[in-house]
């Protein structure tokens, strides 16, 4: 009986080892299958030990060809990717409040053309149009007038649960007529920065070199208000920031600063 029990245990052990080996081969095969199903167009030797680093970078911001015959499928997940077209290279960005496609680099007139399709640039706001935010920007303008001649700052965030824009005051650390610093708040998952506002006190509204540096790499609408003294002429400047690319936005100063009614 003991001999039979030992033979049974030995057979069971061998069977478990076989199952484990089969599972290991299955897992390795599944990884290869997934890798083959999602090829990465990287001009590198597949055996290069550093290729995995490039694959990770590629996956974080892939380059896709725009179809010439099939229907274009827009980016659905939050993130960004690059699009190769017969015209040049575009960037496509998705945020809870924004979908944007913009040309980054246009091919020279007589350059070779890849056999890809074309795509139209677009800026699509989930909340419809920037005018929806005007009442909130007006409220910020009043706060900025009180803070003048020092600069002031605040955010307008998109609440994806409530499907609306919301005003978010900021904790100001230091403010002067020429600079401002604030504590950047950590937003919950259902909120995302949509409009970044700051003022220039009594100075003119414009985007400084410091603003350019602060906005680089961000996806947001940036707005500056200026001329906030009692005897000043108000001014505004707005732009869409897309990972370093900036697109001017037309916002009439009269929409934010109501003209004084005659006596």
UniProtKB/TrEMBL annotation:
It holds the Pfam family Prok-JAB. It comes from the Bacteria. Keywords: Hydrolase, Metal-binding, Metalloprotease, Protease, Zinc. The keyword Protease applies. The keyword Metal-binding applies. Residues 136-238 form the JAB domain. InterPro entries: DUF2016, JAB_dom_prok, PRTRC_protein-A. One of its GO terms (molecular function) is metallopeptidase activity. Residues 52-125 form the DUF2016 domain. One of its GO terms (biological process) is proteolysis. NCBIfam families: PRTRC_A (TIGR03735). This is PRTRC system protein A.
């Amino acid at each position: 009986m003991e001999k039979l029990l030992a033979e049974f245990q030995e057979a069971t052990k061998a069977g478990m080892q076989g199952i484990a080996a089969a599972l290991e081969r299955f897992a390795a095969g599944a990884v290869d299958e997934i890798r083959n199903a999602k090829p990465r167009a990287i001009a590198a030797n597949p055996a290069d030990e550093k290729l995995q680093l490039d694959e990770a970078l590629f996956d974080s911001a892939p380059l896709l060809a725009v179809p010439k015959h099939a229907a274009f499928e827009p980016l659905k997940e939050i993130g960004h990717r690059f699009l190769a077209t017969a015209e040049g290279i575009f960037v496509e960005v998705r945020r809870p409040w924004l979908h944007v496609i913009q040309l980054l680099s246009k091919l020279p007139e007589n350059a070779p053309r890849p056999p890809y399709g074309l795509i139209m640039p677009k800026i699509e706001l989930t909340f419809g149009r920037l005018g929806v935010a005007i009442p909130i920007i007006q409220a910020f303008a009043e706060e900025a007038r009180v803070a003048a001649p020092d600069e002031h700052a605040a955010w307008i965030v998109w609440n994806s649960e409530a499907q609306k824009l919301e005003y978010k005051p900021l904790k100001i650390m230091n403010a002067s007529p020429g600079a401002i610093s604030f504590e950047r708040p950590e937003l919950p998952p259902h909120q995302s920065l949509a409009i970044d506002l700051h003022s220039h006190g009594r100075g003119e509204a414009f985007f400084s070199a410091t603003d350019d540096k602060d906005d680089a790499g961000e996806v947001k609408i940036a707005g500056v208000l200026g001329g906030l003294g009692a005897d000043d002429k108000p001014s505004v400047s707005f732009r869409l920031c897309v990972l370093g690319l900036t697109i001017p936005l037309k916002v009439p100063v009269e929409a934010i600063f109501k003209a004084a009614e005659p006596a």
